[in-house]
Amino acid sequence: MPVFAQDSHSAAGKNQPLSRHSNGLEHFFAYLHGEHGLRLLDLSGASQANVGFITGLGHRLYSEDLLASLDQLFGEGDFYGNQCAPEAIRRFLAQSLNLPEGSCDGALIWDLLEFLAPPLLKAVMDRLSRLVKPRAYLLAIFHGDERAVEVPTYYYRICDARTLLLAPRGLRAPAQLFNNRAIEKLFQGFETVKFFLTRDHLREVVVKR
Of 169, 194, 191, which Cα lies nearest the Cα of 180? Predict the structure, then answer.
């Protein structure tokens, strides 16, 4: 279930956190400018930085660490093979993203979608599309190297409306990596998909429901 909590991952990983300018984050909050009392979803886990920034704008934040939930439920044995079992997918959705339909005005998905096997990816996308209201915005991040065997994962912490702090949480083999065409197909039921160029290995996408 969504929780409010202090950031328990500030010292995660042996590497130092990375600060980066985020055009996607900047545009996500620009779309929300002038709005008050919105309910936003953050899938990078409970963070005092994110809670403080979002509530400082006059909004409410629901936080879930879906990557940790994936490890907990599917981590024994074949991680991605386990995600294809219908009963396991039902158990995952019973304990994750368990919010009322149309309850969210926006969502920070980060890089989660790369670590979902196709059957679970479809189920999560269906759930997300029901959770967010029409015309809501979502921010997602994808790795740019489509041939990578492993990719770095992070806890995404908001410094300000245009700056992210990326706290390393280790390397991980993705279920799949997405090019622009695959990302557009992933969000084909949404109104718009906007890509933002970056100078590093991450590709930022802001989607309108």
Answer: 194
Give the integer Cα–Cα distance in Å for 172 and 90: 24
Residue 124, CA distances (Å) to 26, 47, 134 in order: 25, 22, 17
Q: What is the pLDDT of residue 14?
A: 55
Distance CA 36, CA 168 (A): 32
Mean pLDDT per segment of 10 residues, for the chain of length 209 residues? 36 68 95 92 94 95 95 94 96 94 96 97 96 96 89 95 94 94 94 87 93
Report the pLDDT value the prediction gives residue 6, as an integer from 0 to 100: 32
Task: Give the phi and the psi of residue 163 in degrees, each rounded to 5.
Answer: -130, 130
Q: Please answer whether residues 69 and 95 qualify as being in contact, where contact means their C-beta atoms are separated by less than 8 angstroms.
A: yes
Architecture of the domain made up of 18-208: 3-Layer(aba) Sandwich (3.40)
User: What does the block give as tokens for 64?
Assistant: 């879930």
Domain ranges of the chain: 18-208
